[in-house]
Amino acid sequence: AWIHDPRCKLCGKPLESPVRELCQDCKARRYSFQSGRSLWLYEKKAKQMTLDYKYKNKREYTDFFVDEMIRNYGGWIRGNRIGLIVPVPLNKKKKRERGYNQAELLAARLGKELGMETAPKGLIRQRYTSPQKQLGPTERRHNLEKSIQAGRLPEKVDHVLLIDDIYTTGATVEACAKALIKAGAKDVYFLTLCIGHGG
Prior knowledge:
five-stranded parallel beta sheet, 199 residues, alpha/beta, single chain, 19% strand, 7 strands, 38% helix, 7 helices
């Protein structure tokens, strides 16, 4: 389930053909982020571990996940001159129900290990939204409109790394990237644990 080349040059989804540059999603629409990477395909063991981490309080997975992020993409992160790490936000109601935001855990640990600044409240989710997994691509985008906004960010923000657990259609990452760019970020990248197939 590890992600290897060939992969989409934008979102990093694995591709079946080595001559293709973009997956179907990235060919169909433009995104605000520069590019992204993920550790695993969202299937089998990786999928189960990610869901347990997200919903079953398996916070002890954080160190393993971050170690793998650094081992696989530490060079990529530094090569993109990342100056700030920002987790994808969770609505306050959902965070109370779950007890934590898994993206915050990942971002905090990654920033500590790489010696990079993190902004746990760099983005805020203004209103409660329906779970993205229950919606289609168009509904996902509408679901996030005006929901995610910039929060507490440093005065100068150039190259930002977004952290989340799962990348599916890109709607959440896109909403976050737009909010960060509107707040002054120059380039936005993302890193997640899992991602879907690119075709």
